[in-house]
Every structure is written in structure tokens, then in C-alpha cells.
Design goal:
homodimer; about 180 residues; mainly alpha; three-stranded antiparallel β-sheet; DNA-binding
Chain lengths: ~180, ~180
Amino acid sequence: MQDIQLTPTSYIVLGLLDRAREATPYELNRLVDISVGNFWSLPRSQLYAEPARLARAGYLSEEQEQSGRRRKRYALTARGSDALRSWTEEPTYEYPELRDPSLLKVFFGADSQAMAEAQLSTLRPLLARFEEMRAKDTGEGPDGPRQTLQVGIDHVETSIRAWERIAGESSDIVETAIEQAPALL
Amino acid sequence: MQDIQLTPTSYIVLGLLDRAREATPYELNRLVDISVGNFWSLPRSQLYAEPARLARAGYLSEEQEQSGRRRKRYALTARGSDALRSWTEEPTYEYPELRDPSLLKVFFGADSQAMAEAQLSTLRPLLARFEEMRAKDTGEGPDGPRQTLQVGIDHVETSIRAWERIAGESSDIVETAIEQAPALL
DNA sequence: GATATACCGTCCGACACAGACGGTCCGTGT
DNA sequence: ACACGGACCGTCTGTGTCGGACGGTATATC
């Protein structure tokens, strides 16, 4: 039982197991895909490594199946649910970070018109997917996921408006050029 | 000259050096702080490691001072500026990711009222800082940083509105309870 | 019972992160 | 001139994260 540092990844695993009571890494993967993965992604391999790490440190119990696949089922220990609770109880003053590769490119000189087009073509379907999720919600269960989803929708809408504005700025220039073109003839 | 994988970190270094012509890691750190670091942070140590890595792979030239501090000055090579250009030229369809620790906590059951308070107390000053940056802008230079800053402002405003709404939801419940209280007496 | 396909688990090399540690420079006081 | 404090600057290390290759296991179909 060595002591480890609890990272956001750790709390995702702890939080998911708190809801699911117990799960295999594979099930955790599926849970992430349909929930928190929409705004905080992690690679599949992490969801095999992290529970093992947490189990070694006493935050999870680990039980291995004897069948062919020999998969491991994890569940919260008292220590694990204490850690989760004290994490959620403590408000955080950390900044959100918008890691957006397309913004990085624009910052360093990408053609913002082309980028806007590309991003809008991925963001609009994303918004549709989120809205569908919201529509399917039954209103039962904890508020957290619902509130989070709504904030996610807000931000996608903001991104869409931003790219539309940027696309508009560029095409204004084009239109201006076209309007002025006759004078040049 | 080994070949390496170019990551977002790499392009930040390349992009910064494209603007600055040449810089030491320390200067890169300062540049990040006042520019791209506002939406894509990297630790100080990365900005020492990454240029060295890029130099080894031929993307940067490296020249070590002979004085006491023996610091290294880096500049783009032809290979480096080619790499940067072909990166910016290619629009990306990747999703932006909003890595927000506070949202993660809310998702897993944090008290959203308390979280809203905490986040608003950090986001409002952040917004003020961004708006100040925008006000100071002279309108000269490339569009990228300006557009990026505006998008950043949009998102901070969205976050603020979201937390205000969430705080409002909670207090609605409280108010409802208070309104109904007389009937209970 | 052979084959296709989806399901599931592990491993590895490269990259990112935080922060401790220590050296260098410069301003100020004596 | 010299000492000293604080700002400036660079490196190193252990741990965490990443993406993806690889390979094994169950299930459906014929």
C-alpha cells in the first residue's frame, strides 16, 4: 500500500465507481465515453492503468475473475469514497483551460476562414449530439451530469458563434473587394 | 538528427520563434505567459526541454553563449519554418476540449452553489484582465492573437453566465423554500 | 467446426508535468 | 571594494499521460 498522488484521472475513476458500485476497466471505458469523456477525455489505456494504481494504494478493491478473460472488477473502499467526498466538497479556484488545436493554429497565423469552415463542420454535429443527449434526459438522477452537459452546450454554441463571426469578418473583406472591383475595371 | 513527433508544444515553440526570430528558453517562457499561455498552458520546464529536442531534430538552430549563464539561443531553421507553415496551412477537425476541474467536481456531485461562488471569484478578474488586454491592442500586427483573445473572452463570459445561472437555480430552491415557509408555520 | 467480427486486456516508447534545487546577476548599503 | 538579498535563470528527476500496436477471447453466422 504505497501512497500516490490523486490526479483528475484518479477522481474520474473514483467518481464513476461511486455511481456504478463496481466495474471492470472496460466498463469504465464505456462509462467515460457516454459521460465525462465529452469534456475530459482520457485514453483507453489509462482506464486500465489507473484503477490498478488506485487499488495498490488502497482506494479500490480488486477482484480478478477466474474465467478465460480473467478481467478485474474494481470497487470503492472506504478510503476511496472518503477521498472522493473530500475532493468534491472542496471548491476549486483553478482556471478552466480551453485546449483547442484550431485556436492554436489561428493564433500562429492559420487562415481563419478555412479554419472556421473546418471547425463549424465538426462543431455543429457535436452540438446536435449534445442536444439530443439533453432531450433524452429524464430529469432523474443527480444534477451534476445535467448541469455539466448544459455548460458544455453553452460552450459549443459560443464556439460556433465565434467561428461564424470570424468567417463573416473574412468574407466582409472579400465582399468589399468585390464591390470595389467595378471601379477597377 | 533523429526524427521526433511534433506536438502542440512543439508548434508553440516554433510559432513563437517565428515571431521573435530568436530567443532563449527564458524569453520563450515570458512570451508564453503574455500570449498563448492564456489558453494553452505549459510548464516552465517544458520550454527548456522542447527547444533542445527540436534542435536535435533539426528544426531549430542552437547557439550557446560563452558567458557565465551559458544560456542557449534558438532560432528557426528552414526545416523548422517549413514544419510550422505546413501545420498552420492544414485546417484541423479536432475537437476543442474544455478541461475544467470545477466542472469535473460538479459532474461528480460537488455542491454547485459553492462551486459557482468560487469560480465566479476567479473568472471575473480573468475576464477583466482579458478585456484590458483587448483594450490595449493597437490593431497592428497579425490577426491571430486578436481573434484568439476575443474567442477566449467569449468563453470566459459563457462560463460566467453559466455559473450565474447555476447559482440562481440553487437560490431559487432556497427562495421557494422560504416562500413556502409561512404555510408551514 | 471454420471463419468473421466484435469484444477485451496489456504493454511500450515517447511526451508532459510539477516542483525542487542550485547557480548567476544586479542593486543597495556599508 | 565588498557583502548580501532578491530577482533572474537553468537543469534534473520522478511520476503521470498519451496513443497505438499487438494479441487474446467470446459470439454470431454459415
